[in-house]
């Protein structure tokens, strides 16, 4: 098993020193979904939810979530994010919305946590905007599907591992 780098020799949590690492282009993609009834999904697709444009607001919330990651996750480094894209796609087969967040930087550490935070923040926002219509929505499947750049190289989630 790999050594956990967020603990010092005494077992105390600390922020990893990345100052000796090379600056490289990095990307991470995370996805998740939010399941809901077909009636609630209709509100999203027809733009008739009481709180307004569910997908547009959730997209902005996801972008903001990526930018605030270091404020939320104690040992994350504040990073110079160069791109955040959050895609929300209604999917009648769930039924619900599939969410994909892509984050890029040129830096000394990866952006996996920023991508995960963007996707989860977008999903939470969808829930918030629709909870008056349905309280049984389910958020799930949050995972990194792509990570590239840095010393550890490229990771891609196996095909067919998504719900």
Structure write-up:
With 163 residues, the chain is α+β, with helices and mostly antiparallel strands. The protein has one domain (24-156): Alpha-Beta Plaits, CATH 3.30.70. Helix content is 28%, strand content 29%. It contains four helices and five strands. The chain has a five-stranded antiparallel beta sheet. A hairpin with a 6-residue loop joins strand 4 (138-148) and strand 5 (155-156). Helix 2 runs antiparallel to helix 4 (112-130). The radius of gyration is 17 Å and the shape is elongated. The chain starts with 23 loop residues before the first strand and ends in a 7-residue tail after the last strand. The mean pLDDT is 92.
Give a short overview.
This protein has 163 residues and is an alpha+beta fold. The protein is built from four helices and five strands.
In CATH terms, what is the architecture? 2-Layer Sandwich
Read across the widest sheet, the strand sequence of neighbours is 2-3-1-4-5
> Low-confidence parts, pLDDT < 50 over ≥5 residues?
none
**Number of domain modules:** 1
Structural class: alpha+beta
Measured between the Cα atoms of the first and last residue, the distance is 27 Å
Could you say what the CATH topology is called? Answer: Alpha-Beta Plaits
One letter per element, helices H and strands E, the order comes to EHHHEEHEE
Described by the principal axes of the CA atoms, the overall outline is: elongated
DSSP helix count?
4
Largest sheet, strands/sense/barrel: 5 strands, antiparallel
Q: Provide the CATH top-level class.
A: Alpha Beta
User: What's the helical proportion of residues?
Assistant: 25-40%
Q: CATH-wise, what's the superfamily?
A: Molybdopterin cofactor biosynthesis C (MoaC) domain
Task: Find the count of extended strands (DSSP E, 2+ residues).
Answer: 5
**Which range does the strand content fall in?**
25-35%
Gyration radius, rounded: 17 Å
**Overall pLDDT metric:** 92
């Amino acid at each position: 098993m790999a050594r956990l780098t967020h603990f010092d020799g005494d077992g105390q949590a600390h922020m990893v020193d990345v100052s000796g690492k090379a600056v490289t282009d990095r990307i991470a993609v995370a996805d998740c979904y939010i399941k809901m009834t077909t009636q609630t999904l209709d509100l999203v697709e027809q733009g008739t939810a009481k709180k307004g444009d569910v997908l547009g607001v959730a997209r902005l919330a996801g972008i903001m979530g990526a930018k605030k990651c270091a404020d939320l996750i104690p040992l994350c480094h504040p990073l110079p994010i160069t791109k955040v894209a959050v895609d929300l796609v209604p999917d009648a087969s769930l039924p619900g919305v599939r969410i994909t967040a892509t984050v890029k930087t040129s830096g000394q550490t990866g952006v996996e946590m920023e991508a995960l935070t963007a996707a989860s923040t977008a999903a939470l926002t969808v829930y918030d905007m629709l909870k008056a219509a349905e309280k049984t929505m389910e958020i799930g499947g949050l995972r990194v599907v792509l990570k590239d750049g840095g010393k550890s190289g490229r990771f891609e989630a196996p095909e067919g591992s998504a719900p």
